[in-house]
């Protein structure tokens, strides 16, 4: 029987701006099993970014229930959410979010540094991941010395260092040319084949086609899953 990683039950999110209520998510239900590679598609304003923020424990729903690897997010304190983000989740962003003063190897190790893991262990694990994404010859370079595709590979390596149960990729090829974007998507597919569970948010049907499953967001609802 497949292991359940994510369960959303009637998730709603409403933002309160003064006296105005703006509903962004309207009763979203969704199930993700271990090893899936799922794309979430939708136009601007569809609610996919808000959904990603909730899935990534960056925000809480107004109502509904979210279970992440058995943890009920709705019941978690801010400190507990922070721990879940650092131990259960890997993030890959469109803009890479690398620290310019650090080398490639140091950037990869940053999440464990904040967890105060022994420096030798951090370096060893970071080096393994740098090799995994094919950048061992650039390990001591800084982000400004790397191409966009190389920077995204660093970001992918960094997202893996805490051995997360799920990877969230937010428009991971958005700043890349089509050829480099294909390389990044092939890398993500390779990680999925190795057992990594991935949720990809995109507006690009060509990018979504790499995933094994696609769900669509429109007007705060999931149109089909």
Fold and architecture overview:
The protein has 225 residues and is α/β, with parallel strands linked by helices. It has one domain (4-224): P-loop containing nucleotide triphosphate hydrolases (Rossmann fold), CATH 3.40.50. Helix 3 (104-114) crosses helix 4, helix 3 (104-114) packs parallel to helix 5 and helix 5 (148-160) packs parallel to helix 6 (178-193). A hairpin with a 2-residue loop joins strand 9 (213-218) and strand 10 (221-224). The longest helix is centred in the last third of the chain and has 16 residues, at 178-193. It has helices at 48-55, 78-88, 104-114, 119-132, 148-160, 178-193, 205-208, and strands at 4-17, 20-33, 37-41, 63-68, 71-72, 89-92, 166-170, 198-202, 213-218, 221-224. The strands form two sheets. Strands 6-7-8-3-9-10 form a six-stranded mixed sheet. The protein has a four-stranded antiparallel sheet with strand order 2-1-4-5, with helices on one face.
Low-confidence spans: none
* CATH architectural name: 3-Layer(aba) Sandwich
Please count the helical segments: 7
Strand order of the largest sheet: 6-7-8-3-9-10
**Mean pLDDT across residues:** 92
How far apart lie the N and C ends? 20 Å
Distinctive features:
alpha/beta; 6-stranded mixed sheet; 4-stranded antiparallel sheet; 7 helices
Question: Concise description?
Answer:
This protein is α/β, with parallel strands linked by helices. 34% of the residues lie in helices and 29% in strands. It has helices spanning 48-55, 78-88, 104-114, 119-132, 148-160, 178-193, 205-208, and strands at 4-17, 20-33, 37-41, 63-68, 71-72, 89-92, 166-170, 198-202, 213-218, 221-224.
């Amino acid at each position: 029987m497949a292991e359940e990683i994510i369960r959303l039950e009637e998730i709603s999110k409403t933002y309160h701006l003064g006296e105005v209520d703006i509903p962004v998510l309207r009763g979203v239900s969704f199930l993700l099993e271990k090893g899936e590679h799922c794309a979430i598609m939708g136009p601007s304003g569809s609610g996919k970014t808000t959904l990603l923020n909730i899935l990534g424990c960056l925000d809480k729903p107004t109502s509904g229930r979210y279970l992440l690897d058995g943890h009920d997010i709705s019941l978690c304190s801010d400190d507990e959410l922070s721990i879940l983000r650092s131990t259960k989740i890997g993030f890959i962003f469109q803009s890479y979010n690398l620290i310019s003063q650090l080398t490639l190897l140091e950037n990869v190790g940053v999440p464990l540094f904040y967890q105060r893991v022994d420096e030798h262990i951090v370096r060893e694990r970071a080096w393994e991941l740098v090799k995994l994404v094919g950048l061992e010859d650039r390990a001591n370079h800084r982000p400004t010395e790397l191409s966009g595709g190389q920077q995204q590979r660093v970001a992918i390596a960094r997202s893996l260092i805490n051995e997360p149960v799920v990877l969230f990729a937010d428009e991971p090829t958005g700043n890349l040319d089509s050829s480099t974007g294909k390389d990044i998507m092939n890398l993500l597919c390779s990680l999925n084949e190795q057992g990594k569970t991935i949720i990809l948010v995109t507006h690009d049907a060509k990018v979504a086609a790499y995933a094994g499953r696609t769900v669509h967001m429109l007007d705060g609802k999931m149109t089909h899953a």
